[in-house]
Amino acid sequence: MRNLFRRALPLVTGDAAQEAAPDLWVRCGRCRELLYTREWEAAHRVCAKCGFHARLSVADRLAHLLDAGSWHERDANLRPSDPLGFAPPGRPSYVDKLAAEARESGQTEAAVYGHGTIDGIPVVLAILDMAYFAGTLGAVVGEKVARAFELGIAERCAVVVVSASGGARQQEGVVALVQMAKAAAAVQALAGARLPYVSILTDPTLGGVTASFATLGDCILAEPGAVIGFAGPRIIEQTTGEKLPPGAQTAEFQLAHGMVDLVVARRDQKAAVARVIRLLLDGTAATVVAPGAPEPAATGTNGTSFATSPTVAQVTR
Ligand SMILES: [Zn+2]
């Protein structure tokens, strides 16, 4: 399971140029092309050859999505507990695993939230972090997501959630599962306040996160190639005894089947999110684009720009 979640990281082996200067080069996780690290970072970790979107750290995601200097984190001091006393015989206890995850990732939990601005628009932003416990939804992640929506209501601004998760955190049992309902109720409260919620699905978004707040956005964006589903492909194949069709559970597959509204390349994501929020806040596309503003490139179900896509037109409450 951990290999699945960490498979897309850049690799540094097997090439003379790379071995001579390993910091200068990374190898694409999909096409295996050797890429100049500086150019790859400047492209937000998207392969120039094949368009593969490698995973971003929370810090990179914040720098990529928010206006510079606008981020203010909230409740950074929330820490996980061990509600079940989970310590199976012969295996590491939950407390030991939490310590190991913190040591390896440098994080204290699998989500951050706070407020900032996107293209000048005040937003509350929550980001799930695959680097810590595979982004799993436990009490702290659920609490931070729920509080993000409460903060959005208090500050009367849009909420953006970037999901990346292996699902509910099994070591917290029903305490983890109830976070799904809690977060969903918080989404509904934001809807009741007539404020927009934009959900961004990144690789991978699975399990209880998919079945809760990640798929409740007024507009649901996904990154190209992201794995999005409930049970992962291995579990489905073990349970049903059948192979999934090629490309199943990708962002593009979910777009074609109506589960997401837009697949947006990372370079266009900030402009697309700003545009969607303005559209939802104003309720009309007429005031969405500032004069001279670039058109974000996005793919709708019919291949048109999303400015005229029926999938976006339908998301206004
Ligand atoms: Zn590539």
- Percent of residues in helices: 25-40%
Tell me the name of the CATH class of the largest domain: Alpha Beta
Major sheet description: 8 strands, mixed
Q: How many domains make up the coordinates?
A: 2
CATH-defined fold name of the largest domain: 2-enoyl-CoA Hydratase, Chain A, domain 1
Low-confidence stretches: 1-14, 284-291, 295-317
Total number of β-strand segments? 10
Our estimate of the beta-strand percent is: 15-25%
The H-and-E topology, N to C, reads as HHEEHHEHEEHEHEHEHHEHEH
Number of helices: 12
CATH architecture of the largest domain: Alpha-Beta Complex
Q: Mean pLDDT, nearest integer?
A: 87
Ligand identities: zinc ion
User: How would you sum up the global shape?
Assistant: globular
Question: What integer value in Å does the Rg equal?
Answer: 19 Å
Alpha carbon gap, first and last residue: 39 Å
CATH superfamily of the largest domain: 2-enoyl-CoA Hydratase, Chain A, domain 1
The helix-and-strand class reads alpha/beta
Widest beta sheet: strand line-up: 3-4-5-6-7-8-9-10
